[in-house]
Design goal:
Blueprint: E1 3-6, E2 27-30, H1 38-45, E3 50-53, H2 62-66, E4 73-76, H3 86-91, E5 95-97, H4 104-119, H5 122-130, E6 146-150, H6 154-165, E7 169-173, E8 183-184, H7 187-193, E9 196-199, H8 213-218, E10 224-227, H9 236-244, E11 250-253, E12 273-275, H10 284-302
Parallel strand pairs: 1-2, 1-3, 3-4, 4-5, 6-7, 6-9, 7-8, 9-10, 10-11, 11-12
Amino acid sequence: MARIVIPDDEPAVMSPSVAFRALAGHDVHTYPTRPPDPAELVDRIRDSHIVINIRSTTRFSADVLDKCASLRLISIWGTGTDNVDLGAARARGIRVTNTPGVSAVAVAEHALALMMAVAKRTVDVDQQVRQGRWPRAMVTQLRGKTLGLIGTGAIGREVSRLGAGLGMRVIAWTFHPRGDVAEWVALDDIFRQSDVVSVHVRLSAETSGLIGREQFERMKPGAILINTARGGIVNQSDLVDALSTNRIAGAGLDVFETEPLPPDSPLCAMPNVVLSPHAAGITPEATEAGLALAIENVFAFLAGTPANVVV
């Protein structure tokens, strides 16, 4: 029987889920804490055949994979694969799967919520009212504005639909444009034309640092950046500079270069920024669907018909 290890169920989502019941009768070992270092991760998964990865903070480096000779599958809960050395996995014959699309609605709704909160200055105004003030600052109306999407996978397409529902003009750029998701434009035009830029690509060698000083300089002074993808796609120092100098109007961020976000980060003191803790895809519906698909990917692999394969 294949040995299945879940090395990082903290906070617990897999063990209390309905989806977890499907693993009853299998050789499963679940750890209720995250491995604090690579050595501990190796200790937890060294003898496993299959790993179900819950947290993106668990990093499967080439060195870790080298020390896990029995490992044949890493089933990731989520779409991001930047915590796995995919080249090393491929070279060692280790399949990597993910759960695309299951959290698309949740993440898209969160992106819209961040967009609205920044445009309407909801957090800043709320705090001022609680302090006894009665602000009358003008806020941004989104109808008639341009929403620029970077990436048009399942999440990007859902954000496109929501933006169009608000009466926004939707433009988009992606590596492989197809269909009528939006009006296709060059990447530079996303920054030049958009009133809101929303990021929906995976973090990879191609997208790391994709947005930095040069891109912020192209944006309108009243523009807003929304990032619910990965922190590494945006140069955070350049973003802080753009916000502090009013080069752009604001940002809504669910992801950061360092997570958790350090409390002394300049972003924490900026009234034109709305922050959330990498939680866009966490709803009961999306969580259960994603965990169930991660387990289904295990069963498909064991049946010899692997699905949702990244490598």
